[in-house]
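Support request from a user on the community tier.

User writes: "When I paste my structure tokens into the form, the page sometimes reloads and wipes my input. The last time it worked, I copied everything first. Here is what I submitted, just in case something in the input itself triggers the reload:"
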């Protein structure tokens, strides 16, 4: 489980096709990670299968490749280790299972902060509510406004500066994980019908 509070960024140094998926290598400055541990890479829960001095390697299954934004070598990614049971929950509950990919349709600086607008992933629109949680590339954000076609988030300077949002441009694609609690509520509601 993750919270969407990005701990660091890393750089994809290799992304190679294998017979049944892709193998990803990520370089990072501080490596408090060991082989076999989970790590969220721009919102995607992966297992660090191999770890070296300043890097780790993970496997992406075909399912993961089909649902996520696959990064090219040179791409900066957000990194977060799983929540420990004695930690505070600063963002929101996230599983690291990406639901969809969205596209940046607008970026505007507003005072010291930023306003980002994204294309609404139609199949997941029912899970979006104003002031509700959404994870974008592993970043816990609050939906500030929405229409049938778009949703927007307001980004504070600290989040902008310490995540990949500072590198985003209109047309870029990000991973989306909708609020898991909304999915559970919908499932329970359906079972009562």
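"...and here is what came back when it finally went through:"
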């Amino acid at each position: 489980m993750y919270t969407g509070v990005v701990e660091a960024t890393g750089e994809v140094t290799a992304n190679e096709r294998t017979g049944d998926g892709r193998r990803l290598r990520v370089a990072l400055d501080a490596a408090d990670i060991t082989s076999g541990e989970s790590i969220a890479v721009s919102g995607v829960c992966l297992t660090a299968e191999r770890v070296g001095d300043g890097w780790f390697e993970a496997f992406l299954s075909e399912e993961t490749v089909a649902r996520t934004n696959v990064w090219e070598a040179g791409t900066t990614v957000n990194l977060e280790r799983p929540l420990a049971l004695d930690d505070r929950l600063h963002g929101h509950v996230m599983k690291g299972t990406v639901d969809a990919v969205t596209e940046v349709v607008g970026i505007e600086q507003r005072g010291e902060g930023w306003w980002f607008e994204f294309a609404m992933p139609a199949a997941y629109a029912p899970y979006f509510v104003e002031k509700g949680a959404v994870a974008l590339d592993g970043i816990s954000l609050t939906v500030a406004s929405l229409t049938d076609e778009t949703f927007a988030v307001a980004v504070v300077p600290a989040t902008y500066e310490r995540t990949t949002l500072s590198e985003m441009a209109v047309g870029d694609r990000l991973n989306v994980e909708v609020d898991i609690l909304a999915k559970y509520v919908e499932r329970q509601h359906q079972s009562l019908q």
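Agent notes: The reload is a front-end session timeout and is unrelated to the input. The chain has a mean pLDDT of 93. The longest strand covers residues 8-18. Escalated to web team.
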